Amino acid sequence: MAEFDVIIIGGGPGGYVCAIRCAQLGLKTAVVEGRDTLGGTCLNVGCIPSKALLNATHHLHEVHENFEKMGLMGAKPTVDWARMLGYKDDVIGQNTKGIEFLFKKNKVTWLKGWGSIPAAGQVKVGDEVHSAKNIVIATGSESSPLNGVTVDEKTVVTSTGALTLEKIPAKLVVIGAGVIGLEMGSVYARLGAEVTVVEYLDAITPGMDAEVAKSFQRILQKQGLKFILGAAVQGVDVSKKGAKVRYKLRKDDSEATLDADTVLVATGRRPFTAGLGLESLGVEMLPRGQVKTDAHFATNIKGLYAIGDAITGPMLAHKAEDEGMALAEILAGKAGHVNYGVIPGVIYTTPEVASVGKTEEQLKEEGRAYKVGKFSFMGNGRAKAVFQGEGFVKLLADKATDRILGAHIIGPAAGDLIHEVCVAMEFGASAQDLALTCHAHPTYSEAVREAALACGDGAIHA
Ligand SMILES: Cc1cc2nc3c(=O)[nH]c(=O)nc-3n(C[C@H](O)[C@H](O)[C@H](O)COP(=O)(O)OP(=O)(O)OC[C@H]3O[C@@H](n4cnc5c(N)ncnc54)[C@H](O)[C@@H]3O)c2cc1C
Question: Which reaction does it catalyse (predicted)?
């Protein structure tokens, strides 16, 4: 029986980052991971593989849609699906091995196997019981099931199955117009599939700034994705020929069906804590299955903590990482903190969509006086050069103080541009602070500055 300062259960972005920081702060640290590789959902079946496929198919789209416009002529590439999946697996391998290397470098012990907590201060892996002053639950999440739909990961798949389909479907139905559904829908649309997205709500990407969501839907439709909104899926019938998705329109209760070769169920994720033994330990849980924690990630059991997708908050890798780092600092006797008001969200389609802070809808609901600075990428020379003038940057600032309250970007590299606003918000900056900062020309970032200028006396290139 080995004794550790910290044992973390789960080697995803929350767990592995927490472990590395704990070790850097001098704590004897172990991570329990049941998968064959480290990195959790994110590196194995989430963020990284989906971005690899988005990257490959984005290039395909560029070749077919934009190369000739730039005078790049010649034979167009065809898709070797097996090789594309191979590229994706290679990217996964490089990243998961990278975490293994970081564990060795930082002297983090990997306890291989599935862990449980038989008693406070103890973690069981296989037949061995290890003791720890602190235990961290970082067990992440799994796809939520949908009533009437049985997933077989062949014809009816979750995002995990969608990353390893045997062949590119001719017809793909995506249930759920959230981030994962739209990213995977984009991948297959670019590969030539007829993609229909069925969504229960009347708009795509719930929670997103409504103006951005509308624009995003229009752009995706131009790219060939079809949307059926306000539709409740009743069930999926699978036969040898494929699948039939039955849905009911909420506005008039009329029923209809859609044929598909593959159905992707992307209706959200739920915390995964099965097999840990939390019930017999008496760990308090929230109604939606998350481990209940206080502001310092502590559960109601002394020495037991939880982070990442297993607790409340946005199910995002960087949120899990930040919690992992903050908790490590707390366990080492320092002050760890996560600013939940400044957590960016990104959708990696083309164009990318990114947001941070409040939406206009939230500010209206709070009754807060605000101003909007908006700038279209049509006025950005660099964006037009890459055929991505369609989106915009929208900056929201307090009407009286000019303090930045939120930003919503749809356009090229939005997922990178958003961080300029994140840093500004962390420092309590005003829109004028951004507007007075010199931005290199020609960059996409100039659009952020122009939106900031639009919060004041006006943008220059609008
Ligand atoms: C298709 C897809 C795309 C995504 N894209 C993005 C993106 O672009 N950006 C983003 O920020 N987020 C993205 N996410 C979400 C992101 O993957 C999660 O928010 C993130 O992985 C959560 O990290 P975590 O450490 O809390 O848990 P996880 O990454 O889920 O890791 C938990 C780990 O714990 C292990 N585990 C569970 N129970 C036990 C046990 N009892 N014993 C041992 N090991 C155990 C699991 O095997 C798993 O490896 C995506 C998710 C999916 C599914």
Answer: N(6)-[(R)-dihydrolipoyl]-L-lysyl-[protein] + NAD(+) = N(6)-[(R)-lipoyl]-L-lysyl-[protein] + NADH + H(+)
441 catalytic per annotation: yes
Ligand 1 atom at minimum distance from 113 CA? 43
Q: What is the pLDDT of residues 393-427, one digit of tens each?
A: 999 999 999 999 999 999 999 999 999 999 999 99
Q: Whose CA is nearest to atom 24 of ligand 1?
A: 140
pTM, two decimals, is 0.97
Mapping DSSP to helix (H, G, I), strand (E, B) and coil, where does residue 228 land? strand
Which one of the listed residues 59, 64, 337, 441 is annotated catalytic? 441
CA 201 vs CA 189, 379, 410: distances in Å:
22, 33, 21
Which tens digit of pLDDT belongs to each residue from 114-135? Answer: 999 999 999 999 999 999 999 9
Residue in the block written with tokens 């300029």: 420
In sign, the C-alpha dihedral spanning 186, 172, 150, 164 is negative
Ligand 1 atom with the smallest distance to the CA of 35 is 47
CB count in 10 Å sphere of residue 332: 16
Ligand 1 touching residue 309 (CB < 6 A): yes
Distance CA 27, CA 19 (A): 9
